[in-house]
Protein 1
Amino acid sequence: MGSGGSVGKEAGPLKTLLRQHTQSALEQREFPIFTLTCFPPGFLVHVGGVVSTRSVKLLDRIHNPDEPETRDAWWEEIRQEIKSHAKALGCHAVVGYSESTSICEEVCILSASGTAAMLNPRFMREGCLDIGGSDHRLSRQPHPGMVGSERGEGEVSSTWLGFEDASPPSCGFVHIPYDEFNMPFPAQLTYCYHCRRQKVPDVLFTTIDLPAEAEVTGKGCLIQARLCRTKKKAQGEVNATSISNLLPFMEYELHTQLMNKLKLRSMNALFGLRIQISVGENMLLGLASATGVYLSALPAPGGIQIAGKTPSDLSYDQHISTIQKRIDDTIAKNKELYNIHPPECIEEVVGSPIPDRQRSSRLFRSTSESSDELSELDLSHGKKDAFVLEIDDTDAVEDIQSLLTDAPIPAGFYSCNTEVMPGIHNWTSGLQMFTSVRVYRLSNANLTNQGLNKIFTDLCENLLKSLYFKLRSMIPCCLCHLNFTVAVPEEELIQVAVTAVAMSFDKETQQAADRALTRGSGENEEQLQFSMELCGESTISNNQPTAKPSGVPESAMVHSSRAPSVDYGSFADRCSTWLELLRLKAHTIRRGSVKTSRRTQLLAHSVSSSERCSPLPEGRSRSLRSTRSLPCGAPVTVVKMTPLSFLPGTRIVKYLGIINMFFIRETTSLREEGGVSGFLHSFIAEVFAMVRAHVAALGGNALVSYSMKECVFMENPNKNQAQCLINVSGDAVIFIRESDQEAIPPLLTSRQTSGTGADGTT
Amino acid sequence: MSVELDVFVGNTTIMDEEVYQFWLDGYTVNDAVKVRMEGGVLEECEASAEVLRSDTMDQYRTFQMCERLLHSPAKLANQLLFQIPPHRQAMLIERYYTFDGVFVREVLGKKLSKGTKKDLDDVSAKTGVTLKSCRRQFDNFKRVFKVVEELKGPLVENIRQHFLLSDKLARDYAAIVFFANNRFETGKKKLHYLTFQDFAFCAGQLISNWTVGALDNMVEDMDVDLEKEFLQDLKELKILITDKDLLDQHKSLVCTALRGKTKAFNEMEANFKNLSRGLVNIAAKLTNTKDVRDFFIDLVEKFIEPCRSDKWTAGDMRLYLTHYTNSAHILDTFKHQVVWDRYMGVIKSCILKMCTLCRGQ
C-alpha cells in the first residue's frame, strides 16, 4: 500500500495544512498508534474507519524461539501495515488499537485492528504525547479562554483555530478524512446532518468508545456477528495456507452480518468493534462485537430489501415478501425499542459523489499486495437507498434466518460493549461485575458450516439470555463493557468467556437527565486524577516551604507512596487524612464562595503537603482512625470491581496502582470438587476474592478497568484432572460517594481551575 | 452438542431467595427447575428452560460452597470468598437455620446422636420433609447444641451471638437444646396434640425459672440443666400432701376462694386432693432424671386429663391454679413459699399453654 500516502495530496488546502503540522509530530514516531479508546474532546479531528490486519504464521519456523527477534519482526510488519492502511484512509494515526493472537499447535494468527484517525495537532506538539504534563492536561479543556491564550503563538495556531472552526466538535470526528474525489473505497457520502458543511459517510465503524461530544439519537445496543467455519485437519504450511484462505471470507461474512444487524436496528455507526478469530484444529471461529448507535450527524440508514434471484415461482415470491415483512416489522420495532426517532429533515440528497474516476482508484486498490486487508471497508453497498440482500442460495436464507432469530433483548435491559451506553446517563450506584464461562462440546463430528454457525450463535445467544435472566433483579439496567472471548481449547470444544458489568439506572429521571452535566462529571473525574498528579509535581517544584515542616524529605515521601513495601496502615491513614482535609478545605471554599483558581490551587498544594505529613498529631490521627472505613480488623472491606474506568455516582480520589495477577490452579480430584463447573466456579470466585484482598490491602475500595485477559481451561475427566490459568488486571482506587460531595470541591471549581489557571501559566 | 461447563461468578454473589429455599428444602436441580417453571418466572423474563436450569445449577453450586461457612455463621461476615451484602448474609443464615415445625416435633427431646440421625429417613417419610432437608436441620440442632454446651452465660444470648440468629429463632434453638439435653419425652401419643411452639414456650419458662442461670448469670451450663438445689428443695413441698392438716387447710382456703366463681366448683372440690397430689408428686420426683423426662407426660396425665374429663374451661384452670398457688402462702405451717412460687409459676403457665390447645380437641 505504498501509494497510500499519495491519497491525501489532492485534499483540500485546510486538510493539507493540518496534515503538514501534525505529520511532523506523528511521523517521527515509528508507529503513530494509540491503544486508548477514549479521548479528550477535540482530540479526534476525523475518524476514517476500522483498519485491521491478520497474519498467519508458523511458530515452528522460528529459528531461535527463545529470542524475541522473529516475533518482534512479525508485529512490526503488522504495525507497518496498519499504519499504511490508516494512510490510505487519509489518516495519520490509529486509535483504539489492539493486538491479539490465536494459537493452535504450531499455527498462529496474529491480528491487529484499530481506527484510522486524524488527531488534533494541538495535542501533537513536541513532547506532548510522550510527557503529557500540565500542558497536556490543559489542552484537554476546549475552553475558549485557553484558545485565546494560545492565539498569541503565531500563525500556526491560528490555522488550527481556523480548522477548529471548520468542524464543530460535536460532529467533526465523523467527517471524512479522505478525499471525496479519490476515495480509498466506494461509499455513499452526504453532507453532515449536523453542520451541513462537510461530507460524512453513510456508515461508520470504529474500535474506539463513543466520543463524549458525539450526538446520538436514541440508545445503542450490542451487535454481534458470529461465524464458524470448518477446515480440514492439516499440518504446517498446508494448514497455514488453508487458514489464510479462509480468513478473508470470514472477515467478509462477519462484516456483512454486522452491516445487516446494524441496518435491522436502524443504526448507522459501530463503536468498540472487536473482531476475534480463533483457530482450532478443525475449525475457525469468528466473533465480532460492537455497540451500534445512531449518530445524528450521519444519514439515516435505509431499510433492508430482500431480493430473490429467480422470481419465477409464486410461492417463492410469497416467501420473500413474508420475510420482507418480518424484516420491516423488526426494524420498526427496534426503532421503538432503541428510541430512534431522528428529526425528519429535508432530504438533501447529495447524489452519489462517486464519479467514474473512483472506479479506477478501486481497480488500483485491488492490486495492493495484501489480500485480507480492510475487508471491513472493501464493500460496495453504496449508491442504494436500501440495503439489498439477495437470496440466491441456501446460505443466504440461513443468514436471513439468523438475522431475524436474534432474540430480542428483554424489556428493561440494554447492552453494549463500550464503556457506557450512549443515551443512558443517570446511573445509580447499583453495580454487578461478573464473569461467565461456558464450554460446549460438539458431539457430532461431521457438522456442516451452517450447523456449526447455528450452534455457535445459539451458544452466544443463550449465554446472553442467561445473563439477562440472572441480572433481572437489577432492571432497569445496562450491561456495559460486555467482553466476549472465544477459544477452541480442544477439538470439538468451544469456550466462551464473558466479562461485563451490569449497572442499573434510574428510569424515572432518565428522560430529564441532563446529558451535558453527566458528561461534565465524567471529565471531571479525569480532571481530579490529573490535578492530583499535579499536586505531586508542584509540591516538589514550588511548594517546598509548606512541605518542609513535616520534617520529611520531599522526594522520600513521594517515593514511599509508590514503593511496593509501603506500610499500608500508615498509608491508609494518610489517605483518610487527605480526604478529611480535602473536605475541610472544600467547605471553607464553598462558604467563602471564592472559586478562583488560586484558591483551589492553594487547596491542592496544602492538601498534598499535608498528605505528606505522615506523623500526624496524636489526637487527630486517633479521631480519624475511628471514623474511617479502611480494613483494620473490622469486617471485610467491600471492594467494588468494574471493567469500566469509573464508578457511577462516585468520585475516584486516588489511584493506588495496577493490579496484574496470574493464577494457575490444578486439581486431581475433579469429581469431588463438583466437576469442571464446580472447579472453575470456585477458582474464579477465589480469583475475585484475591483481587479484592489486594485492593483492600492497598487501602482501596474498588478496582476499575478490570479485565480478565486470559482464561485457559483444560480438563482430563478420565484422569479426574483439570487445570486453569487466569490472568486478571485492573487499577486499584479509592473512591468516595458523590453524595458526600459537599465535602469535595464542586465540579465547576476544578474545571475553572484548569481553565483560568491556563491564563496565568501559559 | 452439550454444555460441558457453565459458570457465572459475580463480584457480588448473586443469590435468589426462591432458589435458596428450594435448595434448603432439598429439591434436586431438576425438581427446582420444574417448580420454577410452573411458578411463571419464564414468562416474566422471557427465558427458556435451559436458562433456568443453568441459573439453578449455578445457584446450587454457590450455596454448596457457602454451606461450610454457614456452619459457623460468624465466618460468613469475615470470609473473603463471597462478597455478600450484610442483609443478604442475615437472610442466608436465618433461612439456613430455620426448621420445619413438623420435623423438629419428631426429634424434640431425642438424643442428638448418630442413632437418631440414622432414623431420619423414617422421619422424612412420616413428615414429608425431604431427607436432605431433615439432615440439614438435624445437623443444625446438633451443631448449636455442641457449641452452646461449652459456653457460659445465657443460652438464648449465646445462640444468638454465635449463630447470628434472630431473637425468635435463637429462642427456638434454646428450646431444642434444652429439650435435647434433658431428654424430655415428647413423642408419646398423649402429647401429640402439642406443637413445637407449645413446647418451646414451656422450655422458655423452665429455662428462665428453673435453671441455675435463672438466679446467677455466669455459671457454666447454667441454662441447659435444671438447678439441682432447687430440685432438692422441691422435695420439701411434699408436706402439702403428706400433712393431713395442711392438705385440708389448703383445700378449704382454695374452695372458699373459688365458691360461686365457676360452674365446675363441685368437681374442683371433689378433685382437689387428687390434683394437688399429682402436682406435688411431680415436683417431688424431679430429682430423678427419669422423671424429669416424663415431666410433660405427667402434667397431662395428672392434671390436664382429669380436668378435661370434668369439662373445665381454660378460665376454670387459670382460676383454680391461681388460687391454688396463692392459698399456700396463707398456710402458717408451710415454710417453703419461695420454692413454691418458683415451682408453681412455671407449672401454671405450662399447663395453661398446654390446655388452651387441648380445648380445641
Protein 2
Amino acid sequence: MTIVGICSFFVEGQGSTAEEGAGTCEVVEIAASTRRRKMGMVRWSKLYSFACLRTSTYEPSAAQELIGQPGFSRVVFCNEPHRHKRKPYKYPYNYISTTKYNVLTFLPRALFEQFRRVANFYFLLAAVLSLASLAPLSRASLIVPLVFVVGISMLKEAVEDWHRFLQDLNVNNRTVKAHASNGEFVDKLWKELRVGDVVKVNKDEYFPSDLLLLSSSYEDGVCYVETMNLDGETNLKIKRSLEDTLSLNEDEEFGRFKATVRCEDPNPNLYTFVGNLEFENESHPLSPAQLLLRDSKLRNTDYVYGVVIFSGHDTKAVRNSTRSPSKRSRVERKMDHIIYLLFSMLLLVSLVSSIGSSLLMKHDMDDWWYLQLPDDNKVPDLEGSDSKKEDLVKVLQAMLINKDIEMYDEAACKSVQARTSNLNEELGQVEMILSDKTGTLTCNQMEFRKCSIAGISYGGDTTEVDLAASKRMNADFEACQFSIGESDRISQSFEVSNFSAEKAVLGCPEVQDNANKGISRLSRTEEESVIKGFNFRDDRLMNKNWIHRSSLLEITMFFRVMALCHTGIPIEDDKIDKLRYEAESPEEVAFLIASQEFEFQFCRRTQSVMVLKEFDPSGKEVERYHFKVIFREYKLLNLLEFSSSRKRMSVIVSNEDGQIFLLCKGADSIIFDRLADNGRTYEQATTLHLSNYAEDGFRTLAFAYRIVEAAEYECWNTAFTKAKTTVGPEREELLEKASEMIEKDLILLGVAAVEDKLQKGVPECIDKLAQAGLKIWLLTGDKRETAINIGFACSLLRQDMKQFHLSLSREAESNNQVKAMKEEILHQIENSYKVMCEERNKEAPFALVIDGKAFEIALRGDVKDEFLQLAVNCASVICCRVSPKQKALITRLVKEYTGKTTLAIGDGANDVGMIQEADIGVGISGMEGMQAVMASDFSLPQFRFLERLLIVHGHWCYQRISKMVLYFVYKNVAFGLTLFYFELYTSFSGEVLYDDWYMTMFNVLLTSLPVIALGVLEQDVSSDVCLQFPALYQQGPRNVHFKWSRIIGWILNGVVSSLVIFLANIYILSPSAYRQNGYVADISSLGAITYTCIIWTVNCQIALITSHFTWIQHLSIWGSILLWYIFLVLYGALPPYLSGKAFHVFIEEIGPAPLYWMVTLLVVIVSLLPYFIHIVIQRSFNPMDDHIIQEMKYCFRKDDVTDNQTWIREQRNSQRSTRIGFSARVDAKIVIQRTVASKETINL
Amino acid sequence: MTNTDRERHRERETAFYLFTQQRLPACKPVLTPAWVVEIVERYDTECVPEPFRIDKVSYVQDDSIPKNCSLSLKVRKYMKAPIYIYYQLDNYYQNHRRYVKSRSDRQLLHGWKYHATSSCQPVEFNNNQPIVPCGLIAWSLFNDTFTFIRERAELKVNRKNIAWKSDRDHKFGKTVYPFNFQNGTLIGGGKLNPRIPLSDQEDLIVWMRTSALPSFRKLYGRIEEDLDADDVVVVHLMNNYNTYGFGGKKKLVLSTSSWLGGKNDFLGLACVFVGSSSVILAIVFMLLHLKSRRPYGDPSYLPWNRKSFSG
C-alpha cells in the first residue's frame, strides 16, 4: 500500500516580503513598482490565485432572507460605536473574563463547590450538629478542622482563579489601532473596543474580536488568516472583503465612513455567517469569507481594516469555549461511596445509640436518681471523625511532579505543571489517550529526509525498524545462547546457523555497520540537525558529490524541480550565502532549503522570472570542488496551481536558451498516471522506495518534468488564457481541462520524502505507553494522508496491520442525504466488524482510519454503538479532519461508552473541548497559544514527558492515593468504633472515652504526618523500574488497589483492630487496680491508655503498609507516636479546667504503671496480627507483580549475570502483548524475517 | 591485734577473697508467684434487714432506721499489707454524659467565688445560694462506711492518700470549704464536713474521678497490717448509699496488689493465647513454606507470564 502525502499549496500573497526582497535584490523595475502601492503593486495574490473564483461571494443565499427575523436581528452601525451605548443596540464591551468567580460570587460559589463534596458536606453536618447543645464534642474541635480543610481548598481555588484573572487581564489589555475620528487611528485597549469600532490589525497580530473585513493591504482585499487556535488547521485561510469596501484602504478614508450591518445573533458556529452590509445606499450580502474571527491571526498580509461585529463574550471563539468542568478522579468518586458507606455505618451506630438511649431512658433511667433526669428527652449523636488530608497530599504530590527534573524541558525552560492537583491518581488509571497531532506529536516542521532519484534511494537505505530488529535478534540470540546449557551443543549450533541465516536475510553489511555505530532514529533525534528543515545525510549527494553520479541529468532536473516548482519566496538571512524561505506549506520550505543545500539556490523571484544560483557541473573545474557558480534566470510562463482534486502542481518555465520545461510535482499515483512511455524507466524502483518511505511515515512527492516544444506551448497557452479569462461556473472545469492537456507525457525523476518532524522522543513515548497497555487515538484536523503518515511515523500503524477505512463516497457526500450516508457508514462498519471477527485469531492488529464527515455520521445516535464497538476493538484509531467539537464529542462518547479513563492531550485552542471533556486534559505548553494549557489539568512542555507523567507519576500517585484512602478508612473505622463500643457501656449517653482534644488531634496531628509521607513519598518500585516494566501500569486501569474487596477488607481490619483495642483495654484495666499502689483506672486514665493503643496501632499499621522508607517516613511515623506522649505531657500540664481529662494523666497516673506499657505492646501486636498474616500469605502464595519485581531487583544482586538475563527477558516478556508502537513493529519485523529465514533453511 | 592480723582481716574483706571463698554478698530471689489475693463480698442485699427487703428503697431512704450491718470475711490466703479496701458498684453509670459533665473544676479549685457553674446543672444553686461543691457527681457522693475488726481489735485503716496527689494539690482548693452542700430537699449521697477543705476530703476526690465503665471500684482505704490465712475479719458498715433505686450492686473488696496492680486474669490469659497462637501460626507457615515454597523473585508469577493474563 502506498500512501502519498500531499501538501496543501495554498495561494499565497507575499506582498510585504516581496517588497523587502525587492529592495535588496536590486531588481530595479520591481522596486520601482512596489515602492508605491498606488502606482500598482505586484499583485501576488492575483498571480497565484487565478483559480480563486470571486463569483461565489456573490451568490445570493437563501439565508440572506432571514435577516431581521428572530435570531438574525443584530444591527451594527459601523464606525459609530457611540450608537451602541444605548439600548436596543447595546452590546457588551470586548472585555473577556474566563474566571470562575468574581469578588462577590467567590464566597457563595466556592463554598457551594466545596460542600458538594460528600466528605466536606459530612463535615459541615457534623459541625452544625456540634452547635446544638447535644453534641458530645466541643465545638472548636469539630469546626477547626472543617475550616482548615475547606479553607485550604478554597484558597487553592482562589489562587487558580487569580491566575485565570491575570491571564484575562493580559488579553484584555492588549492594544489595537482603532479609529478615533477623522481618519486617525489610535491605540486602544482590547477591552475598550465596542461593536462598531473600526480597527486596523497588523501582520501577525491576533484579531481582538470578530471583525468584518473591509479592506486589506492587498488591492483586491484579500488577507490570510491562521486559524490554528480555532480548528487546529495549520494552513492559512483566505478571507476577502467585498468589492465595494475595497476603496477603504487608507486611514484617511475612515473619516466619513458609515455603514450598517444587519446580521445573525451571536452563536458558536465557526463556519457560518449570514448578514447584510448597507453601504452607500446599497445592500450587499455578507458571507463567512468576510468574517475575521477572534483568536485567529493575520498572516502574510501587512494590515487589514475591519469593523467590530461581535465583541467580548459574543464572539464565536468565546461562544465555542465551554467552561471547564470541575473534574474529579475515579478514586475520589469511589471515595464518595466509601464515605456513604461509613456514613451509613455511622448512622446505624447513631441510630442504635439513640434507640438504646431512649429505651433505657424510658425504662431504667428514671430510677437512676443520681442523674436527676428532667423530663426532656435527649438524643445523643455519635460523631465519627473523618478528615481530608488528601487535598494537602495531592498538592504536595503535584509539587513533586512539577519539580521532577526528568520532565524539565531545557529548550523551553519549562517543566511539567500540575494545574489541578485533584487528578493525580487518575494519571495512574488512564486507559485511552486521545492525542492531537500538530504541535503535540509533531513540531509542524518539515524536514527533507530522503529522496529517490533515477531509481536510486539516497539518505540511508535501512529503516530504524530494520536496525532495531537486527539488534534485537542479536540480543535474542545471545539470550538463547545463554539459556542453553553447555551440554546442549547440537541445538546451539543449530541456533547459530539459524541466526546467521537471519542475518543474511537482513542483508547488507551496512546494517551491521550502522547497528554498530548505533545510528538509529531513536538516537538520532537526540542530535539536532544542523540545518532546520534538512535532515539528510548521504555522502553520495552531499558536498557537491552528486556531480560524480552517473545519472547527472536526472539529478539536476530533480533539484531544479525542487527549486522552481513552488510558490515560496526567499528572505535574506544573516548567514552569508544562505537564504531563508517563506512558503505556504512547510514542505515547500523544506524542498527549498534542500535544494539550497544541493547548491541549487533559489534566490530571487519577480513577477515572471525566477533566479537560481546554480552550481554548474558541466562547467570547467577550476579547482577540485570549485566549480563555477552561475545565476540562471528562468522565465515563469505559467503556474498551474495545486488543488485538492488535482493533487499536483506544475510550473512552466523557459530557460535562457528558450527551452520550455514543464516541472511537475504531486502525489505519486497522479504523476505515475501521466508518465510518458519513455519516462517510466525508474517507475519500479521508485515504487519500491515509495512504499519504504511511506512505511516510515514520510510524506512523499513524486517529481517529473517534460520538455515542451515552443509550438505546442503557444497553442496550449492560448487555450489556457482563454480558460482563465472565462467568467462563469464552467471556468474551473475549463482550467482543469487545459492543465490536463499539458501535464502529460511526463518523465519521472524520482520522489522526495519529507518528514513531518515528530517532536523529540515521541516514538519512544508512544512505544512505552503502548506497552503499558494504553490505547492511543489520533484526532487531527489534518487530511487523511497526513494523518496516516504520522500514524506510520509514530508506529501507530504498520504495514501488516489490517486497516479499516470509514469514509463517505463522493456521491453520498454531494447528495447530503443523511439516511443514505448513515446506511453507507453502517455497511462499512459491519463489513469491517465481520473481517475483524474472522481474523481475530490471527493476532493481526487492526487499525481504523475515519474521516471527519464519516465521523459525523458515525457518531449519530443509532450508528454510534456499532462504531464505538469497532473502534474500541482496534489497536489504533486515527480520526482525520475532525472539528474541535467532534474531538470533544468523541472524547465524551468514548468515555461514556467504555467507562474507561481517558486522557486528552493537545496544544491548541481547538483541543480545548477535548481537553475539558476527557477525564484528564493535558496541554502542551511549548507552543504558542495558552488556551489549551489554561483548560488543561496538566501541562507538559513536550509530548514525551507524558511517558514519565503516566507510567511513573501516574502509577505512583494511584498507588499512593489508594493506599492512603484505604488507610484513612481503616484508621477512622478503628478509631471511631472504639467510641461506639464505649457508648454501649455508657447507656448510650453520648459520653466519649477520650478528651475532646485527643480526638481533634487524632486526624490533625497524631496520625496525619505518616499518611502525608505515605501519600507523597511512597514508591512500590523505583522510577526506572516503572519505566522498564511499563506493564506495571496496568495495576491502575485494572484498579487492583482500590477494589471493593480491598475496601471491605480494610474496613474489616479496622473493625478487628478496634475490637482488640477496646476489649483488651477494658478487660485488662477494669475493674481491679492497675497500679501497685492500688489505684484504679478512671475514665481519664482508661481513655488515655486506650488512645495510646490506637496511636500505636494505626502508626505501626502504616509502617506495615509503607514499602519505601526514607528518613521522612521514619521521622513521621515514630515521631507521631512520640508526639502523642509529648502532647499528653504538655496538655496534662495545663491547669485542670483547661486540660480536662488529660490533667497530669501521663506523668502521675499511667506513665509509671508497667501495665500501661504491657497493654500497649500486647494490643499493638494482636491488632496488627491479622494484617500481618494477610500480607505474609499474599507475599508467599499470591504475590503481586510489583512484589516480584522488587524481589528480582533487590535480591539477585549476587549473581549479576543471571540477574541481567532474567531482568531483560522479563522486560521483553512484559512487552509482548503490545500491538502498536515501535517495539511491536520491530517484533512483527522479526517474525517476518524469521519465517523467511526458516523457509530458506528448508529450501537449502 | 597485730599488723598481720589486720592485714589478714583486710584481706578477708577484699572482693577477691570473698570471691575465692564464695562469700560475695548476694540476694537470693525466691521465685514464688506474686499472688494477688482478693476478697469480694457483696453486701447490698445482706445488709438490708429481712423485714425491709420487700422495699429496699424506702428502707435506705428512711433516715430514722439505723443502717448498721455486720459482715464477717474469712481470709483464705495470707494477705500482705497494704491491703486495699475498695467498694465496688455495679450497674452504676458514672460515665453517663449528663453525670460526667455535671461538675465545675474551677469551683472546686476556687470555691464559691467562681460563679460560672452552669455546667453543674441541675445541682447548682439551692435557696439562691451556690452549692460548693456543685454538680451531680459531688451530690451523689458515696457514703457507706466500713470498720474492720479482727479478733476484737479494730484493724487500723489508713484513709489518707487514697486520692491522686495531683488532684489534692491542683484540682481541689485548700481554702475551699463545702458550703450549702446537701441542704436541698433532695438529698443524694453523703454529706461533707464544712470545716475540712475540699483538698482534704479524699472520699470526695476519689468519687469525683468518674469511672469509665458501669461497674467500677473505688479506693476506700488501706489496711496496713498483714492478714493471715484463716483470719476472720468482721466488717461493721453503715449501709447508707442507695443503689436499690436502680438495681445496682454494692460490693466490698479487699485486695493486695502486685507490680501489675490488682488481680486480673485476663492479661495473663491474653498473653498465653497470643503467644501460643503465634507459635502455631509460625509452625503452620513454616510447614507451608517447606511444602510449597515460592522461589524468591520467581518471574513466573509476573502477570504477563501467567496463562490467564490477557493483554
